[in-house]
């Protein structure tokens, strides 16, 4: 399996004879050193025509040997691996890739020529894995302090010279191979930069490391950390760019609170000129054509399934029969098609139904029908797209099929969603539709497709909601939008028909107060006060289409219009940590999970289970909102929240239906048992905890009388099983879950 290094070097050398990136940094122009080893602006690329036999192979071998040794030293790669492969990759960031391996281990690292580790991954085959895939969370083998000490040592190894690490967050990953995931920013000259990193520490040490600049690079010298503009001046300029919208936002516990939310572009202040720069607009000025949205397969025929012979031995099981029975009252495709064609706004008169598929939700048993319609675009009906692009596609024999996908309730035919895929993407600028006409068309369609919700929804005019052709109608309360409850409609400007339609609506939201709302100016001040104006390095686009940048011809040929350099600028640091401002209290709202602890509480003083609650919180298991409410009676939804988070899952939203779906899927409850607000006994929670675990089958087997098996196992795991029929509190649940995870 061993490969000789000389052979690899020969192969690498043959492939890279004309690659200037292999030159040392000192060979480049002193006035414009290039981090990525690319030619400086105005400098001609170096192309080697040296005959192969005159190349200094010994020098290259020595250079690579030195890089391997430095990499092994940094990553603590031992000498017991039996194989090493080395590959060189040219590009914006030239790099070497090394893979050490033996029968049971593998270490891969990608490294710049200056020794900078871009990414590293360690893998080891474990023979003692018992392959249990149920509910099995345990705390990591290292304590947070032990992992933190190891992480600091790795930071010292991985970031050298002008670089250092700033940890922005730590995530505890639960499970048999539990670990700690550190996420942060690579600081340069002590200032933040756009480069981020992730580093994972498990029981064996470093598991993986990744830098966001692994496959990109920045040209030019790193500017000195000496601004020409004072921070106070930059802060005043940035504050003047802050804009906020006022609307309802989910509070994480089934309600919605009125909140001012920041909107607008990413803005910085150039630290040398003092200019305020809209970076979104700057990048957009370089243009570029977006790739068209992916379409479904074009006209592929599906072969018919082979018939099952009578002597195959196959039978229909009871479970299969139950599933089949659920399709008893499903409408066939032609019936749903007839119903849909009564909605003229769908424009189905020129479409043919290609197929009708059915899908059953494994949790709810709900069956949906997925109908796919097709038509061919013609010169007479271009759906608002450019005639020139149509003619070009037609001239090369390209596929001009238009696909429309419609999803309905399979038993009632009620419309659920619509989407349309076109073969062209260049619009006809002469085809327009006024906002009034588009809005009226969308409202008319909503009145037909979702009449029960039409009265509660209004066209949402919030910044960043909707698009050129897409309108969002959001639920309103007391005159304010709640955009998480929404109906989305896109009207085609060329045909006036509906291109897309979808509904995302939870009727069980409880809205907070809307009186005594603070003024927008006060909200903006509270928001900016919660942020720090920070001097740092930002990525800045550099136009390579200009004549003086002809050195980038190879990149221009690939379609690039700019490269990036790092510039010194003032920015708002920590914007991700502040999600907005409470419109009633005037306090800044911090995002969950932005610190080293996923949850923090202010109501645990004197609580007997405080230590266990805090240990769970540090592992990312807890309740949002800053209060644990330990003495509050445990509800089914509370229990599901703790168990779902302990399993490593996360509800896609804060809605009862999403928690129920995850709780049922993972086996904590059945659909029949789910009652979100029903209080649980201590034994109820023990059953939820143990049933999907490795102890579940034994607990059921031993429970010949009542819940004896669950009690015996819970006691063996160190849980307090006294008063099993007493109502459980949130603190009780935390203590039992902590014992289970500490086994």
Question: Can you walk me through this structure?
Answer:
Residues 1-41, 43-57, 288-315 and 593-597 have low confidence and may be disordered. 25% of the residues lie in helices and 26% in strands. The protein folds into four domains: 5-211, no CATH class; 231-290 and 515-590, no CATH class; 335-511, no CATH class; 610-741, no CATH class. With 743 residues, it is an alpha+beta fold. A hairpin with a 2-residue loop joins strand 6 (179-188) and strand 7. The longest helix has 19 residues, at 57-75. The strands form four sheets. The chain has an eight-stranded antiparallel sheet with strand order 1-2-3-4-8-7-6-5. An eight-stranded antiparallel sheet has the order 13-14-15-16-20-19-18-17, covered by helices on one side. Strands 9, 10, 21, 24 and 25 form a five-stranded mixed sheet that branches. It contains 19 helices and 25 strands. Helix 14 packs across helix 15. 30% of the residues are buried. The two termini are 42 Å apart.
